[in-house]
């Protein structure tokens, strides 16, 4: 049983978001939001600050409404586990333009590094496979991250990848906390005016 | 019931959502929503999404709105309890949220285990900043839901229409 892994979460996320093009990103609350922010703030980032367990469902709604655009959810293993049923919902819908990256350090990193379910043996990539995701994988080496980035951009099918990262908290890069602002900024970038 | 003159409120639920430009109907099933769910599933312009738990719908509809589209969440009153923490999302980001909630534990309830959540449904929604309206008669459904849709989508507000058990009718337990 492996608790997390040895990858640098910031290096992984920076590579996944490199030359992102049309990509829209939804982040789960806590460290994944900081990782995406550290890679560079962007109008097409939607950072969640609450509603734990909702990152993947926000991604599902967005991917369904924007089928021609790649949509990436970047979240943590604890956040995804709280919304584990959503993997079944998403598997039924199967949007080809949606990818879910679970940054798995095997711990609740935001609350004092308590061991998480993933850290004690629950592999979310296997949960996704059992739900019927057409592709799921476990990434343990940095060499595999560029191919993951290419998979996101290709919009070639729904997938979930758990990426085994080190259990550490890099310096926080805080995204904007004004939910209305990031919502309207996101929609404006897609051509939708605020009410 | 006089079926010739009765208002078909179940059809009205779907018709109002459709007319409001709803492109996503996300739901945990309830018998009271069966007509709207069936019509939504048959409508090629509407994405019908069955959920494992109701709060998934709040995230989903926030995502759809980010992507420029409207939706509605159908559920039973017990599901409101599942939504509480996630209602922070529309509260903080002012996402439109249109919920249609069929009531249990409300009137003539045979299963008293439904009563605690049924009795708490409307206060719980209000505590989390959701505006609510109750329909207890068939002719109330259309105007209340139209009004809720207006306030949700034009005012970036969370709105719920509760469909009471006096409207839905008693559940038949012994057949």
From TrEMBL, chain B:
<keyword id="KW-0456">Lyase</keyword>
<dbReference type="Pfam" id="PF02776">
    <property type="entry name" value="TPP_enzyme_N"/>
</dbReference>
<feature type="domain" description="Thiamine pyrophosphate enzyme N-terminal TPP-binding">
    <location>
        <begin position="10"/>
        <end position="104"/>
    </location>
</feature>
<keyword id="KW-0670">Pyruvate</keyword>
<dbReference type="GO" id="GO:0016831">
    <property type="term" value="F:carboxy-lyase activity"/>
</dbReference>
<dbReference type="InterPro" id="IPR029061">
    <property type="entry name" value="THDP-binding"/>
</dbReference>
<dbReference type="GO" id="GO:0030976">
    <property type="term" value="F:thiamine pyrophosphate binding"/>
</dbReference>
<dbReference type="InterPro" id="IPR012001">
    <property type="entry name" value="Thiamin_PyroP_enz_TPP-bd_dom"/>
</dbReference>
<protein>
    <submittedName>
        <fullName>Phosphonopyruvate decarboxylase</fullName>
    </submittedName>
</protein>
<keyword id="KW-0210">Decarboxylase</keyword>
<dbReference type="InterPro" id="IPR051818">
    <property type="entry name" value="TPP_dependent_decarboxylase"/>
</dbReference>
